[in-house]
Structure formats: C-alpha cells, structure tokens
Amino acid sequence: MKKPIKQNSIGKHWHIEIYACNILKLKTVPFVQQTLSEAASASGATIVNENFHQFSPFGVSGVVVIEESHFTIHTWPEHAYAAVDFFTCGDSIDIQKALDVIGNNFETEKIEVRYFDRGNIEKAKELMPEILKEENVKK
C-alpha cells in the first residue's frame, strides 16, 4: 500500500472494511485479539494495552492501544465482516504489514481501505487559546 502523501496533519486514520472473512475466525476474542495484536506488532507499533469484549451469541469489539495511538476492530460474523481502524501519529507505522496480517488471518476475500488526515496542525495552532500557546507556557 502506498504511504499517504505527507500532509500537515496531527494524525493519520485508516478505515478498513473487511468482507468475505472466515466467519469462525471472527466469532471469539482469542483469535481476534491475537490477530489485531499481531497486526500492530507487524506494523512496527509499540503495544501499550489491549481490551476486548465478547458479544453474545458472537462477535467481538476490541482495541490495541499503541504508543502511536490505536488499532480497533468490530466483528460481525453473521455477515462475514469486520470493521477495523488504524489511527497513528507520526510516520513509523507500516500499515501494509498490518493489513497483510489481517487479510491472511481472517482469510478475507476483499479489503477496502480509506485514508483520512486528522487534525490540521496550522488550524490547531491558529485556534488554540492564547494561554496554551507554546510561547506563553514557557513564561
């Protein structure tokens, strides 16, 4: 996957739609958690924490918190579908490696990826309250 063109953004956000997955792989926490953790590690992210929830009768939501931000997943085995988000700050994460792990582990036939820049740095500086601006904090 091509890296996005460097933008004047605070964060990078990938929305990943995963279709036609092996439904057995989407049903329970252990495999979903292992897959998202493996994807984060493969991307070069530094894992800080993980939290996953099992729905009844099946399906999983979870987050892998990384130093660079987070990876999340929500699965719908009844639709052979999962929604995944990768949110990162900086340029150290290799999203393609994470996508490869997700695709292989869930045995998917279709992955769609949308990329969004999050938070314009110049706009944030412009709209920041005067008291919080760096030059005033140092005083």
Written account of the structure:
This protein has helices at about 25, 30-45, 95-105, 120-125, 135; strands spanning about 10-20, 45-55, 60-65, 70-75, 80-90, 110-120. The chain has about 140 residues and is an alpha+beta fold. The protein has one domain: S-adenosylmethionine decarboxylase (4-Layer Sandwich). The chain has a six-stranded antiparallel β-sheet. Strand 3 (about 60-65) and strand 4 (about 70-75) form a beta hairpin. It is elongated and about 55 Å long.
CATH level-4 homologous superfamily? S-adenosylmethionine decarboxylase
Terminal Cα span: 45 Å
The assigned structural class equals alpha+beta
What's the number of helices? 5
What is the level-2 CATH architecture name?
4-Layer Sandwich
Query: Radius of gyration over alpha carbons?
Result: 17 Å
Our count of domains comes out at 1
The top-level CATH class is Alpha Beta
What would you call the shape? elongated
The total strand number stands at: 6
Query: In percent terms, what proportion of residues is strand?
Result: 35-45%
Largest sheet: 6 strands, antiparallel
Report low-confidence residues grouped into runs of 5 or more.
none
Instruction: Give the SSE string.
Output: EHHEEEEHEHH
Enumerate the strands of the largest sheet in spatial order, edge to edge or round the barrel: 2-3-4-5-1-6
What is the helix content?
A: 25-40%
CATH topology: S-adenosylmethionine decarboxylase
Kindly report the average pLDDT value: 90
